[in-house]
Amino acid sequence: MKNLHVVEHPLIKHKLSIMRNKDTGPKEFRELLNEITLLLTYEASRKLPLNEYDVETPIQKTTGYAVDDKKITIVPILRAGLGMLDGIMELVPNASVGFLGLFRDPKTLEPVEYYSKFPEFTENHHIYIIDPMLATGHSMNAAIEIVKKNNGKNITVMSLISSPEGVKEVLDKYPDIEIYTAALDEKLNDKAYIIPGLGDAGDRLFRTK
Question: Where is the Phosphoribosyltransferase domain (predicted)?
Answer without folding.
Answer: 6-208
